[in-house]
Amino acid sequence: MRPILYGILASLFFSSTFILNQAMKWEGGNWMYTACLRFLFMIPLLLVIVAIRGKLKPLLLEMKKRPRSWLGWSFVGFGMMYVPVCFAADYEPGWLIAGTWQITIVAGALMSPLFYKTVPAPGGSMRVRETIHWKGISMSAVILLGALMMQLSQAESLSGRDLLLGAAPVALAAFAYPLGNRKMMEVCEGRLDAYQRTLGMSLATLPLWLILFVAAFIEGGPPSAGQTGQSLLVALCSGVIATVLFFAATDMAKGSAPKLAAVEATQSGEVVFATAGELLLLPVGLPPLMSWIGMLIVVAGMTLYSVYSGRVATADNTLRA
């Protein structure tokens, strides 16, 4: 139950990304600054936290052992996740991006065969490939239906181009995040905690954020004070608090595809939190009725998937005992 609670809390803080990214767009902020400033602020914050806890040296030693893995999977998990999300914010409202982001639940489940788990075997243990739980996939299809309804509800108010440029990048990000996160869990093999892993992946993607900063500066000059302050809030709420909570939850669930899928399913809460936040804080209109129905379907799908995943995990533990 604790991983699920951590996941829900993470979704609350993650939702700040969608809200504040929209606020920056309304103020004319460059999406490249929106992407890079979050991580440029995250790195010193996490450096202080990890250094105070006396865990900076072990992290750097781990990164030195497998630099290519750190660079590659960090780019997938952080770079290919956040850059598309920030780009999409120029074309769709935050609550719609949050709804489309729920594809990550299905993506995580479909990618299970790319990973291995350790199971008991005569004379010890052995690693076997994870399998796709098709019953769970069928339940998560409910989530996709809700996300699709939310997109279709905007067909009249947004152009086909805006819908494509808003939805397609978020769909890419939804696959990249669980892939990069799980691969980095394999690389770390439990030797690093959530703070260390978040800092390590942020450091590994630093060249990307510096390139985006230079490109944004050349295109439009320095970021405004408002965008800088809001990016700092995103770095603290989403980049540090939410990411550490989510990584801690996935660390608790590692070794079990159903448990990991259940943790990833908690991110559906972002739809509710992002919608409420935008309505309270930004000058946006109420989503249409079809969007509300789509949101309810997404949350219902999340609940069904979490319950199912919990039952599968319990059954697996019983068999192993």
What is the secondary structure topology, with strand pairs?
Elements: H1 2-26, H2 31-52, H3 56-65, H4 67-88, H5 94-100, H6 103-110, E1 116-121, E2 124-129, H7 134-152, H8 160-188, H9 194-204, H10 206-220, H11 225-253, H12 257-265, H13 269-281, H14 289-320
Antiparallel strand pairs: 1-2
Helix pairs in contact: 1-5, 1-11, 1-12, 1-13, 2-4, 2-9, 2-10, 2-11, 4-8, 4-9, 5-13, 6-7, 6-8, 6-12, 7-14, 9-11, 11-12, 12-14
Protein name: Multidrug resistance efflux transporter family protein
Organism: Paenibacillus haidiansis
Transmembrane segments: 31-50, 70-89, 95-116, 132-151, 163-179, 199-218, 230-249, 289-308
Number of contiguous helices: 14
Strand content: under 5%
Q: Please tell me the overall pLDDT.
A: 84
The major beta sheet can be summarized as: 2 strands, antiparallel
Oligomer: single chain
**CA(first)-CA(last) distance:** 20 Å
**Strands side by side in the biggest sheet:** 1-2
Order of helices and strands: HHHHHHEEHHHHHHHH
DSSP helix fraction: over 70%
Total discrete domains: 1
- Uncertain runs are none
Gross geometry: globular
Radius of gyration: 19 Å
